[in-house]
């Protein structure tokens, strides 16, 4: 692997009139990485990607590809390729002409084009379709043609703008795995944007979580999931029970907080930055909560309680339980363990629950971040 | 189909059928029969192709016929050449209000009658007209310049009259071209020209062809513009037909000419469609 990253953004910003769609974003993507940008709709993902592709000019900041600034390079000269949200395959050409389009623009001779097109089509598992019209392909096949059309040019960076958005759920699940495989096979740097966290978590080496034009956190899927830096990341990546609370007491790194429902929760304050009276946002993952029929099992945990089953949302391995706390009436989502132990659990049953202090993630409510 | 729905079907179709029959088929059948009558004496007629023979034996008719054809083709191509950038600008480079405004501006010339429009050009182009005076004023010409009564004047008039009929179908097809296709083209390294040739024009082809057919038909059948801007010697085929019918009272020859013009326009449209590999159905459907 080379030292210089394939793609580097330095304080990139983009404003439309007074509105800052992308605000001082900096990141770098090493060669061969699958880099995802994950964020809710309208957070500026497409704008950022279009700046990298060259369709939009950054208001400020610098953009480097393989260490060289490309701000002055027009999109048709940039060593990046883009897979568009709706693929943008050319309907007036057959598949071979679509894939060969970029090579034709480079003036490669005809026989070489035919050879290279066939080779890349075979690599994406579509050998022998070059003569067919684009409309004869299924959604997933079109996807692969769109990728082949870019990959045949051997770009330094491949940009993908929610390419799975138009596919149905089943196919999306399948394409996720396939995309990741294609990426490692071509060993090209992918920058992939999506608002679907499972796409990002499954495929990426690195994920940037974006919100309102800024990167909230950049890290691996595991880091984002287990150690979210900000309240936004904790709420956006994975599922979480969310509470707003006030700090009531702190002792030796452990804090005691009272939620608006009157529930008392315990968490860790690793940075010792919380003081009594602070408003905080608290996140607890449903799968961090332990269930048990006898109290002794959960008694040693930092947060315990007794809840009545308000609802069971059965969804195979992703089944969830909605518990209502016996004392405060607060609702809590809990992942239902699939060990069979709770198979006969029914509505209105009462059960004990508990979770460790370090599973309670606490963030100062005014947006300033604090780690546990 | 039940009897009732059959009745509805025919009733709904009736206006179209009546229109076709009375306004298109009947006059043409009549004209064709007239064109086959040969005058052998006073009120004595025989059936034959003599009228058509007159056309083929007289070089003046022949030349006018050919001239009308190639001038119309030239006018069509010129309209396309000027209309395409305008349509592209309206469809792709403007949004919202300014788009509507520009579109309406193409329509404005059609709020006045063709006659008035053509007179407008005459005021601009004649010897004592605006352009002539302007050239003298600036000092580019020493005396009055006559810009009327030549082929260029006819061409200007034809292009001007036809512009809307080219721009409208072009804007419609170009509007339906997804911007991301153009961006994808750039992204894959194409130059602006390559995108025009490989993506924009193939996509706009149905619009180009339907615009061209309409403009060509309009030019070929135009009577007023060639006569007024081209003068007495404009040598436009519709002018010949007119003079056979009205000046010479030779309805037989006039009808034959009319049929020849119909054949010519059909032939050229057919060749045009074949060359552009479009079908009439596909073109009209857009
Ligand atoms: N040309 C433009 N002019 C003005 N505002 C724009 C323009 N393009 C984008 N925006 C605004 O910038 C913000 C970010 O848009 P962007 O398309 O980057 O969002 P996104 O993250 O890609 O969202 P989605 O997931 O819905 O595609 C939006 O609020 C949008 O309204
Ligand atoms: Mg987007």
Automatic annotation (TrEMBL), chain A:
Residues 7-237 form the ABC transporter domain. Transmembrane segments: none annotated. One of its GO terms (biological process) is quaternary ammonium group transport. Keywords: ATP-binding, Nucleotide-binding, Transport. Gene3D superfamilies: 2.40.50.100, P-loop containing nucleotide triphosphate hydrolases. One of its GO terms (cellular component) is ATP-binding cassette (ABC) transporter complex. This is Putrescine transport ATP-binding protein PotA.
TrEMBL record, chain B:
GO terms for biological process: transmembrane transport. Its main location: membrane. The chain crosses the membrane at residues 7-26, 69-90, 102-124, 152-171, 207-229, 249-273. InterPro entries: MetI-like, MetI-like_sf. Keywords: Cell membrane, Membrane, Transmembrane, Transmembrane helix, Transport. GO terms for cellular component: plasma membrane. It is found in: Cell membrane. Residues 65-272 form the ABC transmembrane type-1 domain. The keyword Magnesium does not apply. It is a multi-pass membrane protein. The keyword Transport applies. Belongs to the binding-protein-dependent transport system permease family. CysTW subfamily. This is Spermidine Putrescine ABC transporter permease component PotB. It comes from Litoreibacter arenae DSM 19593.
